[in-house]
UniProtKB/TrEMBL annotation:
It catalyses: 4-amino-2-methyl-5-(phosphooxymethyl)pyrimidine + ATP = 4-amino-2-methyl-5-(diphosphooxymethyl)pyrimidine + ADP; 4-amino-5-hydroxymethyl-2-methylpyrimidine + ATP = 4-amino-2-methyl-5-(phosphooxymethyl)pyrimidine + ADP + H(+). GO terms for molecular function: ATP binding; hydroxymethylpyrimidine kinase activity; phosphomethylpyrimidine kinase activity. Its EC number is 2.7.1.49, 2.7.4.7. SUPFAM superfamilies: Ribokinase-like. It comes from Paenibacillus stellifer. It holds the Pfam family Phos_pyr_kin. This is Hydroxymethylpyrimidine/phosphomethylpyrimidine kinase. Keywords: ATP-binding, Kinase, Nucleotide-binding, Thiamine biosynthesis, Transferase.
Length: 275
């Protein structure tokens, strides 16, 4: 049996709903062996972020070397990268080992507003990481910052996707969770030529902690298994839709999405005892 392997390069969320923890749970659910290189430790729960402790850039580089010297990921995703120094180490590592199928989730702030990327690091992200990306998955506020424009509707999402593709990302998905459309969420996929709209009903829930991490991890897992980008984007959307629909009301703030939901439904099981 071929073992498909995916690597996440991201921060730790002690609460388990976002970051490395969300990524590894998602890889596991989708049948992919997960590996991780930590960029930062966050002290976090459903109420917010209580502390951010970045790792030394050399510690990030060393983790990538340990993986690269011995293991070959079939896909890689990046999440919280925190600083331009860490971004440089990450892009150096990805280039050194020739890793393909890179999904860049340009994480900038946590849902409560705590910064997870230093402002001056946005340039480094665009300069060093986007040219290596197969797919970049900004939410609307991230797309506004990277593309340098305000987004007020679908046409603006398309323009931002075009600009981000020009920076070197082969595909771009501008995710619609922060959009103003009542009742619906539209993600805009751009392949450098054409746009595809991935729509779903807007789920009314406070339990959306980790949606972006989970979505990009599902995308990377599917790419690791050899799916095309179009197929991977569809499955990632189905995975996150189920995870939000069955969101977990644990903790007293914004609960995490339900990483079990997609596979439980495929197996014909109910939502289980988690909620
Ligand atoms: N309320 C919601 N209902 C349905 N889908 C959602 C909702 N919020 C986010 N999504 C989906 O979750 C994924 C992550 O979107 P988004 O919330 O925009 O990103 P982020 O978590 O990075 O802010 C996207 O595929 C988006 O369509
Ligand atoms: C360590 C870490 N990485 C990323 C996020 C963003 O989470 P979301 O997916 O909700 O945007 C987070 N809250 N913490």
């Amino acid at each position: 049996m071929k073992v498909y392997k995916a690597l996440t390069i991201a921060g730790s969320d002690s609460g388990g709903g976002a970051g490395i923890q969300a990524d590894l749970k998602t890889f596991q659910e989708l049948g992919v062996y997960g590996m991780s290189a930590l960029t930062a430790v966050t002290a976090q729960n459903t109420l917010g972020v209580q502390g951010v402790y970045p790792l030394e850039p050399a510690a990030v580089a060393r983790q990538l070397d340990s993986i690269g010297e011995d293991l070959t990921p079939d896909a890689v995703k990046t999440g919280m990268l925190f600083s331009s120094e860490i971004i440089r180490k990450v892009s150096d590592g990805i280039r050194r080992y020739g890793w393909k199928n890179l999904v860049v989730d340009p994480v900038m702030v946590a849902k409560g507003g705590s910064p997870l990327l230093q402002q001056e690091a946005v340039r480094a992200l665009a300069q060093y990481l986007l040219p290596l990306a197969l797919v970049t998955t900004p939410n609307i506020p991230e797309a506004e910052i990277i593309a340098g424009m305000t987004i007020a509707g679908i046409d603006d999402c398309k323009e931002a996707a075009r600009r981000i593709a020009e920076m070197g990302s082969r595909y771009v998905v501008v995710k619609g969770g922060h959009g103003a459309e009542p009742g619906a969420v539209t993600d805009v996929l751009y392949d450098g030529t054409e746009f595809t709209y991935i729509e779903s009903p807007r789920i009314d829930t406070p339990h959306t902690h980790g949606t972006g991490c989970t979505y990009s991890a599902a995308l990377a897992a599917e790419l690791a298994k050899g799916r095309t980008t179009d197929e991977a984007v569809k499955t990632a959307k189905a995975f996150i839709r189920a995870a939000i629909e069955d969101g977990l009301g644990i903790g007293s703030g914004h609960g995490p999405t339900n990483h079990f939901a997609y596979m439980r439904r495929l197996r014909g099981e109910g939502v289980g005892d988690n909620d």
